[in-house]
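Please decode residue identities from the backbone states below.
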């Protein structure tokens, strides 16, 4: 099994292509440019798994769905929110990028961007058996209502924006919740072993023991 990392957009949002044999899974879809990488490997894309509903992790999803016969997997709140440009923060990112990168030639993103609901939705937990591998997808609210942690073979965690190496978990978005993070997600994170490899939504992979800023912030 091979895991390839790609970064797209002004915030360098990660997309991970998991390859086993001639089949693949994509974790997050921040750019339609990932289509080229998938086709380069000549693999069949089985699933796109969304770590959460924010637009910087979704900008390429509609194009990917048109190109491949894959199933999109997401938590049920995530599935609902990706259908609305207010709830998926496309409008927020449109303004945020324009302000933060006004001196740079930054790609313009659609402030009305939205997606169809996911194909496979779940509430608290979903198990997938794939190519002899096991994926456990666990609802982990806090950064957003529909955030998840994705455990692969009990040794790797795709964390979205819930665990970023140099940051606390940000819960200050309108659909984020410090209370939910403390009640539901923090106990899950506390059970992660130090030697597990974290594949975050931004930045490079790292061992969980390197997470120096464990905690959360809402401002």
């Amino acid at each position: 099994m091979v895991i390839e990392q790609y970064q797209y957009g002004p915030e360098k949002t990660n997309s991970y292509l998991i390859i086993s044999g001639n089949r693949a899974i994509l974790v997050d879809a921040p750019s339609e440019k990932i289509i080229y990488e998938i086709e380069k490997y000549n693999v069949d894309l089985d699933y796109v798994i969304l770590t959460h509903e924010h637009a910087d992790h979704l900008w390429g999803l509609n194009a990917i769905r048109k190109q491949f016969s894959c199933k999109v997997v997401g938590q049920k709140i995530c599935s609902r929110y990706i259908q609305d440009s207010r709830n998926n923060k496309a409008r927020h990112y449109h303004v945020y990028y324009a302000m933060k990168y006004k001196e740079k030639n930054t790609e313009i993103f659609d402030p009305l961007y939205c997606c169809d609901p996911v194909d496979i939705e779940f509430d608290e937990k979903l198990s997938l058996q794939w190519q002899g591998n096991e994926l456990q997808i666990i609802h982990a609210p806090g950064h957003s209502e529909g955030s998840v942690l994705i455990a692969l073979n009990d040794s790797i965690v795709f964390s979205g924006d819930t665990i970023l190496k140099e940051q606390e978990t940000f819960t200050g978005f309108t659909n984020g919740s410090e209370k939910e993070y403390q009640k539901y997600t923090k106990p899950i994170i506390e059970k992660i072993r130090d030697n597990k490899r974290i594949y975050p939504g931004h930045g490079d992979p790292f061992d969980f023991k390197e997470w120096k800023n464990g905690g959360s912030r809402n401002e």
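Observation: The helical segments are 34-41, 61-67, 76-81, 90-100, 178-189.
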